[in-house]
């Protein structure tokens, strides 16, 4: 399960996936909510995309635990690297994944900036 969820988290950070509403729909549940590192609360709209140019992500310290049957909690650190000025913002992230029709979909995500 851990390898599967890590792969899904990596897909959500992929620029090709982030700019495709259809690909995001495969990974995010209709009930998806995010507590953003900015303090905003985002509720999923199936037409939304999250593409950012000149940004890459590096996942570290990834762990995944089964909360109960069909639910998993992923936690990790991510470095968001801005290629234009070579700066990095780091955050601690957590995601809850739910098995829906034999596919894992993210239902909740939270990012907290590291200063």
UniProtKB/TrEMBL annotation:
InterPro entries documented for this protein: DUF4440, NTF2-like_dom_sf
SUPFAM superfamilies assigned to the protein according to its UniProt record, in alphabetical order: NTF2-like (SSF54427)
Domain annotation DUF4440: ranges: 5-106
Name used for this protein in its record: DUF4440 domain-containing protein
Species in which this protein is naturally found: Clostridium sartagoforme
